Amino acid sequence: MSKNLIFFKMQIGKYVCNVVSAGSWMGDGGAAMGVMPKALWKKLLPCDNKNRIPLALNSLLIQTAGKNILIDTGIGNKLSPKKKEIYQASDFDLLENLHKLDLKREEIDYVILTHLHFDHAGGVVTNFAGKPELTFPNAIHVFQKAEWEIAQNPDELNKASYNFKDDLQLLNESGKYKVIEGDYELLPGVKIERTGGHSEGMQVVRMESDGELAYYAGDIIPMQSLKHLAVNSAFEICRKDSFIAKKKILTELKNRNGILFYAHDSQRLWERM
């Protein structure tokens, strides 16, 4: 993956959408592909000698009605040297890439977090010269109540996925967030839909304007290789809920010739169904 690359700009009705890199990391291919055997997934995904595959951190910037909406924030820059080595995490490129779009971090109005796992919410707080600050100090951060609750008090099943102290405590103290329950229309045509499945409060973003339809499905369909309805990552809290959400999204997109943005695909950023 090219460093600091802004991948793609697309017009969807009245929305201007930019896929913006927040960096990349390496994850276990078997965990990412769940029930699919390595003999099959290795034909789709390159892996290293530790069976790790490259995982992009593709945020989506939506601009409409004078508002700047960012979906997900990547891992950020707060990993310990040991974890950065384990994950082969790149530099945190999100702010530099937004700057290339002439956007300052203070100009982001909303940050929609599909869920609060460390690779999606890690960039909520950034270390600036060793001092932690909200990366987007004027933004309202939007997430599900169930996700907020499990992030604060994760059980043994969820503990490894969240880092509330480093990633979210400062946000909690600031009050710059909106907790929602279920579906919620953030702006006309920009709808947040709770799915569950991957996490307790997993949510996706649906955009519809002037006959065009698009989804940013986060970890419900993070890569093209995970489009198959029966294949989900090993990290799913409820595989059946992920299946139901995936089927609904893909059916609607296929019926409408819509666009799907991929959160983790390092080779393909979007696809028209």
Care to describe what's here?
This protein has 273 residues and is an alpha/beta fold. 23% of the residues lie in helices and 32% in strands. It is built from nine helices and 15 strands. The strands form three sheets. It has a seven-stranded mixed sheet. The chain has a six-stranded mixed sheet with strand order 10-11-12-13-14-15, covered by helices on one side. The protein has a two-stranded antiparallel ribbon with strand order 6-7. The longest helix has 18 residues. The protein is globular. It starts with 5 loop residues before the first strand and ends with a strand. The model has no long low-confidence stretch (mean pLDDT 94).
Q: Radius of gyration, Cα only, in angstroms?
A: 17 Å
Structural class: alpha/beta
> What ranges have pLDDT less than 50 throughout 5 or more consecutive residues?
none
> What order do the SSEs take from the amino end to the carboxyl end, as H and E?
EEHHEEHHEHEEEHHHEEEEEHEE
Compact overview of the structure:
The protein contains nine helices and 15 strands.
Question: What tags apply to this protein structure?
Answer:
273 residues; 15 strands; 32% strand; alpha/beta; 6-stranded mixed β-sheet; 7-stranded mixed β-sheet; 23% helix
